[in-house]
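Re: your question from the hallway

Yes, I did run it. Sequences:
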Amino acid sequence: MRSAVAQAHLAGLVFALALAGACRPAADRSPAGLVTVTDDAGRAVTLDTAARRVVSLLPSFTELLFAIGAGDRLVGRTTWCDWPPEARRIQSVGDGLPPNIEAVAARRPDLVVLYRSGPNVTAAEQLERLGIATALFDLNQLEDLGPAARRLGVLTGRIASGDALARVLDSVVAQRPQPLGPTSQSLVFVVWDNPPIVIGAGSYLDRLAALAGARNVFHDIPTPSAQVSIETIAARDPDVVALLSDTAARPAWAGRREWRAVRAVRDGRFLYLPGTLFGRPGPRAAAAVRELRRRLAVVGTVP
Amino acid sequence: MVALAIGAATTALLLGPVPLADLRGTGIVWDLRAPRAVLGFLVGGSLAVAGAGLQALVRNPLADPFLLGLSGGAALGAVVAIAFDVAGAWALPLAAFAGALVALVLVYRMALAGGGALDPRILLLGGVAVGAFAAAVTTAIVSLAEATELRNAFLWLWGGLATASWDTVLVVAIYVPLPLAVIAAAARPLDLLVLGDEPAGYLGADVERVRRRVYVAASLLTAAAVAVSGVIGFIGLIVPHIGRLVWGHRHRALLPASFVGGGTLLVLADTVARTIVAPRELPVGIVTALIGVPLFVLLLRRWTIT
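Structure:
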């Protein structure tokens, strides 16, 4: 039932894309036939022609590539790439942490897209030495989605779709967060219980919450996540505890005495957010915001 | 000494990431801060006593409760519990405890292999070997398992008193007195062991029995500590040495001093861990090292000068 909801949102997004695409003339290639973008490591990524065999080493990139209609160019993905469902049919090259260079190279890609992190920068250098083009993109915040979509569009020759998706995503980010009225809910994203780790302002989840009209009680922590004490969670007294979880089963730690000092845990006000939609920033960000708003409304009516 | 401990406990109750004034009327101080301070005291004290006993036992000043493979075993137990999704609020501490016990039995059997006598050298080497093997299996499980969450299991290993509650305190408070008493009862023979096995034997110590009892008791203390608070380093290593520098080598004084000193140090370190980067928190093992090591160096210098 949940996946049906998600698919309805996806259909809505595809429709919006089609509209946006129709209104815009296709951008043309650079005169020499060369395809060039600058990645987030500041490197110029140059291909002779649009990439035909792409390995994506981040679920968000896989989703973006499918969303711009370049899913058929994908020849490799990570074990985590589970959306859209068609992505599962693409051969996996491992968990990508760090990338298995041999497995990636064996797919004979003409482009490998990596998330910009220390180990991935090293992996990109190794792939470049094998003559395989690589692009390193940031994908930490919702703001990173638009630029990534636009450049993936250029690299795969889906310039118009990439642009259209980027504009939709940029407009999601440009939305003013819902004003936080007296009725707005506060929440805490609990990532792990022992030690307690919560989501801070550096994560896209903080932004998703704000767009959905809720307040992350740990918005004052600038990093994506941080270890805090249960005492601080209890004192900040969030209305709702949000968990990234595919099932609506109450976590075992909720039964422990120390956690029962937190009112939302005591009252059982948990929000279970499925990983495929909320576990990473992706092209369905608008759907994620709507879904979060709907779920917050539901949990808000529980006495 | 006792005044110091009371001071540490008071500080721990008064200081926290949230100012005390904001907590009036809530149960937070009683439900979260107080059990955390008590648990910290019990764990710190147990680790220090275990360290003092083991150092005398293997006649090696480097002996540390976690050198004997117990932390590796506990980590493996915890990771297995998470990887196979063992349900239950107490699954993690119980699995860690079981893992530590398995490591304890393995090392103990190894040290007995050469005959009836427990060989302290094999206790050390076997502990390191079992710990390394457990670490390899742990890493294999973490890298093969699908769950991203498993990576967070490593964080637990860094140590922390986050899950303290009166339930945990009760369990630990019932559990630790027996092994503590076993080590305390061996205070006199432990003094003699410093002279060597043979002289100790001539002076009336049953070296074999003392060694077995103290080793098992120290390991049981460490297993409980790691089950409720992960691996908190340096307390078991440094506090007994500080105790020897200040109170001398007699175990009748050293063991209680280590208990109170270890407890005090951990409670203070945890107070720092909770408050210094508030609202964030540091793993307490980092703070015990940051406080314990300079203190230790200071005392070493004073001791070598006089």
